[in-house]
Structure formats: structure tokens, C-alpha cells
Amino acid sequence: MNAAALKAALHDGREIAILDAREEGEFGASHLFWAIPCPLSQRELRAPKLVPRKATRVVCTDGGEGHAAKLADWLRGQGYSDVSVLEGGTPAWKAAGYVLFSGVNVPSKAFGEWAEHHYHTESLDPPELKALMESGQPFALFDSRTPEEFQRMTIPGAINVPGGELVYRIGDLVPDASTTIVINCAGRTRSIMGAESLRRAGVPNRIVALRNGTMGWELAGMQCDRGKRDSYAPGTPATADLALARADSFAQQAGVRILPAAQLPTLLADTSRTTYCLDVRAAEEYAAGHLPGFRHAPGGQLVQATDQWIAVRHARVVLTDMGNGARARMSAAWLRLMGQWEVHVLDGVPSLPAIAAPEMPQAPSISVAELAATPDALVLDFARSIAFRDGHIPGALWAVRTRLPALPARPMVVTAPDAALAHLAAGDIPGARVLEGGNAAWLASGRALEANRLMPADEDCIDFYLRPYDRNSGVEAAMHAYLSWEIDLVHEVARDGDSRFGQV
Questions:
Q1: What domains, with CATH codes, occur in the chain?
Q2: For the CA atoms of 501, 192, 331, 13, what is the dihedral angle to 10 degrees?
Q3: CA-CA distance, 40 to 481, in Å (whole number)?
């Protein structure tokens, strides 16, 4: 498919998914607006979730290196019946006069900028927040990122309330309407979306987004805290009914459909459409029990990084929170306003058959004790590069499955945070064995991991688009560049012309 044909396909109203076969770091350098990262090295794990209906139109792309053709061949071998390759990849798209984007989660981040412009979200600069802290006036500061990001660094005094929980819990957290509510993230998007969620839900307080988040805080010469775990009280909030009323009003305005539980099986049986089923609750709630076939997609992250879960434009999306529906309604309203999908909130708990996990290859394994007794073994770690830096088995090499270097003639042991990825990778290496329990088992045995922030080097992290504070040099310049990039997204999106933000 050439660039002009793909551009036309994006506007014909039919289902389509654009899968970029490069590693995520390469993808982040330059890609199409609606392209979804599906690295060739993780095709078995990602593609079936991103494109669950095998009759969906799929267009594979890359940077012209040939990865797209390999992904397309694999998809056809798995039974996908309508697969094309973008001729010439991203260079051909650019040569045709179309816009390319850097960064990751671009549609979601661009939507955040659109929301700020459209709703005129109030914001304040870090020095203004500092003055508010010292003024004695009542205020509450909430960090709307994931718990992991919050623990890495946060503004002093902040409480971690991920974006999907804000409307659901704000009545308990801030019962007094005279209290100013400040929402922050690391940069801009989740600050804006968190603040605007509360505003769209009709929370009566003054609500502001912290402009440029923790990056702006540190660029202003102030220090972030690290290792904090302050969060909301778990369980159902006392003000859950109020949260539902607020969220329902917003969802109705956005055109969200309420799906009775009894109708879900009929929707799922319709093979002419793609239907994504997602559970927007917190991780611990999902782990305690969830509906068969519903993937975990915490609400704030779903809106922030939609391309991690939904690849098919014009698909159906069904959300649940297994509760009163407030959280599902908030996430659904924002997805609906992004303008790409038919969005439903599940009302009730349907009876669904259990779904068997897909069979994955099983490679031979080795225990931690056996590995420790094999001093000439070479450990290949297939974790994300950023995680490898934080901790790996001493002497291990970081690896990407489809980019393996020449390996010495030594016993090979494979480890990865995802056991399925470890077994897939080991299957590609003759004689390799998988470490039972991975690095977690190594730690549990009383052995230490080693950390090295310089390995792999920034330029070698092809699998991960480094955030400014992940870099080993030029951090301040990268922060400035990132914030400028986010601000300019709204203009680039307008030039691209493929979004439908706000068109419900």
C-alpha cells in the first residue's frame, strides 16, 4: 500500500490498524500519528491483543529497514487475512508530504493538549505552587501518575491518586469546596487530564493543573522527593454515589453507551467488528478477580497511553470497573471524545465462559542453584533496557530478541520479566535454557543484582523511548525539549489532519 492509499484508508470509516514493527525506541524517533508499536521481537505477545479480530485491515510499517514485511508475513501465517505493508515506510510517508511524529503515546498526549485548549484548563507554574504551599491557604496536591512513577520522584507533599481514580475518590479526599486542588504529573498530559476530569465532573473546587509537572518543578530549581508511597485509602469511598452522578453526567455528554450485562455476549459474538474488553480498576483490584477476557487497563493510563491497549480505529470498546461504574464512565467519556471508537460502559456483571490462555512454547529450564553452579553460563536478559540498568544478574548481557549479536560457544541462560517472552527468546537460541522464576528467583535466593545506569548506553536503548530523566547526560535540555514538544503537538496534529478530537 502506498502512502496516498493509506492516507485515504484512514478516512474511509472502516476498521484499520497500523502496526509499526520497530522497537519502541526506534518507533519513538519518527512514526505515523495513528501507528501502534508492535515490535517484531514481541509479535506473539502483542499482536493478538492489539488486533484480536483476524479479518481486520492491518498495515505494517517501519523506517524502511524491512521489519514491516517480516511482521506482515508472520501475521499472515497466523491467519490474518487483510495485511499490507506501507511501501517505503516512514520515509515514503514523509516524501508524500505527510506529517511524522516523534515520541510515544502521541495521540493521547496530543489529545491532552487539545483538551487544555478546548476547555481552557486553568494551570499554575511551579513557583506559584510553591507560593500557594507557603500561603497557609487550604490546598491539596495529587500526583496522577502510576505508583511506580510516583515512587521514582514526586513533588513534596503530593499524594498519589492515579488519574482514573480522581473523580471516584475526590469527594472523600477533599470534602471542603474551598480547598484548591492541584494535579501534577511528570510533564503536562496527566496534569491536564486529571484536572479537567474533575472539572468536567462538576467538582466545585478551584482545580488547577501544575504546568510542566515534576520536570517544571526541578527546572525551577526545586527538589523532588523520591521513594514516597503516600496514596489514597483503598476500598469503596464513602462518596461513591456522588462520584457516579458526576461521572454519569460527563459520560452522557460525551455519548458513552451503557451496555446491559446480558447484551455483552451478543456483542462479542459479532465477528464483523473488533471489540476490546478492558477493566479500568487499580492493579490490586484487578488481581483480586476480574471478568474472563477483560484485560487490565487502569483508567488514567488507558487515556494517557491508549495505544498500549487499542490498535484498531473504529472498533468497539467495552469498559468495566466491577463497581458502580464511575471510573469506567470517566475513562469512557475521554475515549469517546478522542473520536475514534464506539465506547460502552458495562452495566452489571455478565456470565462469561472461562478463556484458556494461549499456548506458548516451553523451552528447557534451569534453576537458580544450577545457574550458580555453572560459572561459564552466559545470561541473556530480555528485560527493557531501562529495567536492565536498574538491576540484572552479575555478568548478564542485555538483549533484544530479534537483534541478537554473535554469541560465544557457552551455555546460554535466558531471563525476562515475562516468562512467555523468556521461553520465546530461548526457542530462538539453540540449546538455551530459561531461568526458573527469572531475576526475582535470583533475588529471592539471597543473591544480589547489579545496577549500571550506563549499560546499555542511551543510544543503544532501541527498545525504550527514553524520558528526559532516564538519560545520562543533557537531562535539563531534554526536559525543555520534551515540554516544548508537548506544547507544539496540538499544532502538528492540526497539520496532520487525521484526528477527530471532540467529534462525538
A1: 3-104 (3.40.250.10), 110-233 (3.40.250.10), 244-347 (3.40.250.10), 365-460 (3.40.250.10)
A2: 10
A3: 29
Give the single-character DSSP code of 415.
E
pLDDT digits (tens, 9 = 90+) for 170-196: 999 999 999 999 999 999 999 999 999
Amino acid at 200: R
Residue 423: CB atoms within 10 A of its CB come to 19
Cβ 181 vs Cβ 174: under 8 Å: yes
Run of H or E including 268: helix 264-269
| pLDDT tens, position by position, 355-386 | 888 888 899 999 999 999 999 999 999 999 99
**Which residues are within 8 A (CB) of 194 and not within 5 positions of it... i.e. 6 or more apart?**
142, 144, 163, 166, 183, 185, 209, 300
d(Cα 127, Cα 504) in Å, to the nearest integer? 38
Handedness of CA 419, 420, 423, 425 (dihedral sign): negative
Please name which of 303, 302, 297 lies closest in space to residue 285, comparing C-alpha atoms. Answer: 297
